[in-house]
């Protein structure tokens, strides 16, 4: 009997491979033209999976290693607005975590997931997910977690083995697309960093040099009058014009917007990292990050955590938010274990955040502290200073 069955096995495997190839082609289409975080790209990925496998609706969630959060980036058959853009912490995503840790498709109708009456007794990872039977597909490549695709079945029966295999392979293909997108994003970050460094160089060579010359004249103590006074005025006006022209260049990428407050993100990170590291936090009474700088502050916090975990073996992360003088607030992240691995340093994310902090009127500094410590500190203007600036204008 094994002879007649063998062609069916081959035919099923060939179909799975063909379906995965269809997803692969869709993944690669237009990858260089789309922006690094293009929702349309991931929407097409979800559509490709739904078009080749027996599922009708899907949402794709990418994993943020630093914040241990999965957030929706693409959907098909369901409105993305139904989901919070911040997503959900991995500690509150039981089925996603199982799919990623075990690298398998988790079906909510599986015996180890469903209750005695066949219904789900595990809370869904995100509010407003489809009510039908769901499959959690791991997006993993080379042991690295890229995210989870949650798909709704077309019927109420558990997934057939062939469909399960097809979804698992499709997940690998989506992971490959995520790798390619990450490379594209890294190139874009490098381009942005080069553009910002060029901006800093132009400001130094053009604006600063003009103002430096005026400063030398003023420092001499000689009174300015007549031609000298006019020349100083012209230099200051020229510096203003050059600075305005430089700052009105192409808009560069900033931290993504967020509806969370920094305190909420700190509490969530403490829970998410509780099994790996102790996270301590201190917030000075009455001190909070201005709303317009929340995304920057949370981005710096995430990068600080990511760098500490990647370049060392920390046991403690100490996060503090306090007032710095009369016109600034400071977000400080200290970690130990910086010398546990060689070559501890800062990533591209911190370098970009440093430039963004300057554009926001603040300052980001990072470096070694003590024998094995590493510090990241973000200084931002306080509400009072910003209100005074607006009143002066």
From TrEMBL:
Keywords from the named record: Kinase, Transferase, Two-component regulatory system
Limits of the GAF domain: 37-189
Keyword Transferase set for record: yes
Entry superkingdom: Bacteria
The UniProt record lists the keyword Transferase: yes
Protein name per its UniProtKB record: GAF domain-containing protein
